From TrEMBL:
Protein name, UniProt field: Dehydrogenase
Lineage of the species this protein comes from: Bacteria, Pseudomonadati, Bacteroidota, Sphingobacteriia, Sphingobacteriales
Domain of life, per lineage: Bacteria
Source organism: Pararcticibacter amylolyticus
Domain (Gfo/Idh/MocA-like oxidoreductase N-terminal): residue spans on this chain: 43-166
GO molecular function terms noted in the UniProt entry: nucleotide binding
Gene3D superfamilies (UniProt xref): Dihydrodipicolinate Reductase, domain 2, NAD(P)-binding Rossmann-like Domain
Domain Gfo/Idh/MocA-like oxidoreductase bacterial type C-terminal, chain residue ranges per copy: 203-444
């Protein structure tokens, strides 16, 4: 199998010189972006087609002046569904299919890539895309570990690419209004955000097996050190194993904690703790099915996230949500709507979504709202055309997920972590610091 370092050399040659500094494809990065005008098509490749990717292929296909040029996945069985998604959203041209993401990077006709692969691929693909001169929309979490998040930021800035993380609520108009109300003092000084997620997932057991002929398991592993194939892992349960996934904390907690951080107006935590475990089942999950995370920030502010992955009983009447607490009352949200209460819990204001499709309800959270997906996709495309940062820029995404990544580290080492408020780095804990990064398959180490 061709190693990543050899591939990057090929891309550099094939692209007529992706060179150091701000020069891409023989012109400045700024001039390159500016040639994509308001009336010109942006050609996209969708990488990772199981579930989320196939849905978003259709979402991007129906965007104005956007075209899905390539569908890419390591499993040939998923192409039919993705092609149908594109066709059903009125795209006339038929995308080509590709089994190797590295060939997508070599295609000069691709302006941007959308990434919905397993978590261990998110940052490596983001970096590869930036190095190949492509803008990147990467699903949450931005990275598998904190170090990768920093690399993703460095790549976006070095190669002057638009990089958007898939935190769709950042493009929700009514929710944005609610956050603005918080910042303007509708409940006074906001000091605490309570967040939660519930589901009724089942036990997972892995057994030795042989990868299906349709699946390129070696490329599925990509940057991750090689392990033998196991039945029951692909295409979803990798979420619960540290080698590839990041647990419920990053799989779903990312969304609510992002809103909470946005509303509180905080960046990096100064202290993180996490309690919980695999309590519901005695199975093969490595990540917790029940977890409580506490993130403390400067200026006496805190976020709490509670997760119940194996029992779907609702909290505060909702399967997921956010409540902000302030000196003069509270504000609840989590979807594209919000409610304001006084200190006694009396409802004083309610603003509902303007679109019936704008709902976060339902446990199929892979596609929480088609309208929000469309708005976030449209923001990404507009950011490319306008040469601006998108609503969930790579650095915003990193700040929103690092707390949850650190909570997983705290849980794994079994103690509270103290952090540098300037960047979230772990202080005075060598054992925990070892989990800041991960190991890679030789030749696949991501570099900027």
């Amino acid at each position: 199998m061709e190693k990543r370092r050899d591939f990057i050399k090929k891309v550099a040659v094939a692209s007529a010189g992706v060179i150091a500094g701000n020069s891409l494809f023989g012109m400045s990065a700024k001039s390159y972006r500016n040639i994509i005008g308001a009336n010109e098509r942006i050609h996209l490749a969708i990488i990772g087609l199981n579930g989320r990717g196939s849905t978003m292929a259709g979402t991007f296909a129906r965007q104005k002046n956007a075209e899905i040029s390539t569908l890419c996945d390591v499993d040939t069985r998923v192409f039919a569904k993705a092609l149908k998604s594109v066709a059903s959203n009125k795209q006339i041209s038929v995308p080509k299919t590709e089994g190797d993401c590295r060939k997508v990077m070599q295609d000069k006709n691709i302006d941007a890539i959308y990434i919905a692969t397993p978590d261990h691929w998110h940052t490596p693909l983001t970096i590869m895309g930036c190095q190949a001169g492509k803008h990147v929309y990467v699903e949450k979490p931005l990275s598998h570990n904190p170090h990768e998040g920093e690399l993703a930021i460095a790549a976006a800035r070095k190669y002057n690419r638009v990089v958007q993380m898939g935190a769709q609520r950042r493009s929700a108009p009514v929710l944005t209004e609610g956050i603005q109300q918080l910042h303007e003092g509708i409940i006074g000084r906001v000091y605490y955000a309570k967040t939660w997620y519930t589901n009724d997932r089942k036990a997972t057991f892995l057994t030795p097996g042989t990868a299906p002929a349709e699946l390129n398991y070696d490329l599925w592993q990509g940057p991750a050190p090689r392990l033998a194939y196991q039945n029951g892992l692909i295409h979803y349960n990798w979420h619960w194993f540290w080698h590839w996934g990041t647990g419920e904390a990053l799989n779903n907690g990312t969304h609510e904690v992002d809103i909470a951080r946005w509303g509180l107006g905080v960046d990096y935590p100064i202290k993180v703790s996490s309690s919980g475990g695999r309590y519901a089942f005695k199975d093969d999950w490595q990540t917790p099915d029940t977890q409580v995370v506490t993130l403390e920030y400067p200026d006496r502010k805190m976020i709490m996230w509670e997760s119940s992955s194996a029992n779907g009983r609702r909290i505060e009447g909702d399967e997921r949500g956010v409540i902000f607490y302030g000196e003069n009352g509270s504000l609840s949200t989590g979807n594209d709507a919000y409610k304001v209460f006084d200190l006694k819990g009396k409802l004083t204001k309610e603003v509902a979504s303007k679109d019936k499709e704008e709902t976060m309800q339902g446990r199929n959270t892979a596609t929480v709202s088609l309208s929000l997906d469309s708005m976030h996709a449209a923001d990404f495309l507009d950011a490319i055309r306008q040469n601006r940062k998108p609503n969930c820029d790579v650095e915003t995404g990193h700040k929103s997920i690092i707390g949850m990544q650190l909570s997983n580290i705290a849980w794994r080492v079994g103690r509270e972590l103290r952090l540098d408020p300037k960047n979230g780095h772990i202080l005075n804990d060598p054992e925990a610091e070892k989990l800041w990064k991960r190991s890679y398959e030789p030749g696949w180490e991501p570099k900027v």
